[in-house]
Design goal:
Blueprint lengths: L2 H16 L7 H6 L8 E2 L5 E5 L4 H6 L6 H13 L7 E4 L13 H18 L3 E5 L1 H10 L9 H4 L4 E5 L2 E8 L4 H4 L2 H20 L2
Helix pairs in contact: 1-5, 4-9
């Protein structure tokens, strides 16, 4: 699929989410004049980063990872020599949950089909999950449930899954926001992004 076709299909997803009135987060979005946050980046990306749900800054702008966690993500990408504009960044849940609480199962169930479509349109070779919610969803969805463990045990590990378009490498990572509360995770993330960079170089040779 060429890039123009991918962009067209991603716009269809955007339009559907904008009108997703059966979402439990729809009214909260409208009441606060927030935007849904679909994703941002290269529609031919080798890497797709998947977070959990937008925060307030993201909902106000419609851009993923543009607040404090986004600055940390930018720093990690830069340190690994990965350009943000070359990757694609999104979340499972496309609307902000109240008070930045964790996404609820019903919310993940409503928004996850849009994520699946995004993945199959972009067709990345690497899926990097940010945080335990995206890690658990992706690994359960792609037949890796038996490999699941606490994120502290498997962050930076490499898994493979078969998707409709081919083999994809999955790497669970801490959410960048975790470094705000636990500085030790910053070193883990730096190491894991180094692994991510090496895998990317191997896959695009």
């Amino acid at each position: 699929m060429d890039k123009a076709k991918k962009t067209e299909q991603l716009k269809h997803i955007r339009d559907e989410v904008v009108e997703l009135k059966n979402s439990p987060l729809y009214l909260y979005r409208k009441e606060n004049e927030y935007f849904p946050v679909l994703g941002e980046g290269n529609h031919d990306a080798t890497i797709i980063f998947i977070g959990e749900a937008p925060g307030e800054n993201e909902a106000k702008t419609g851009r993923p990872f543009c607040g404090t966690a986004g600055k940390i993500l930018d720093e990690l990408l830069k340190g690994a020599g990965i350009k943000r504009e070359e990757v694609y960044i999104t979340n499972i849940v496309k609307d902000r949950p109240p008070k930045n609480r964790d996404p609820e199962p019903v919310e993940i169930a409503i928004y996850a089909p849009f994520l699946e479509r995004q993945i199959n349109i972009i067709q990345p070779k690497i899926i990097a999950t940010l945080g335990r919610f995206s890690m658990e969803y992706i690994m359960k969805s792609y037949g890796l449930e038996s490999e699941l463990a606490p994120i502290g045990a498997i962050h930076g590990h490499i898994f493979e899954a078969e998707l409709p378009y081919g083999t994809v490498t999955i790497i669970p990572l801490y959410h960048p926001a975790a470094t705000i509360y636990n500085r030790a995770t910053k070193e883990d993330l730096i190491k894991d992004f180094s692994i991510l960079k090496k895998i990317t170089e191997q896959l695009i040779k």
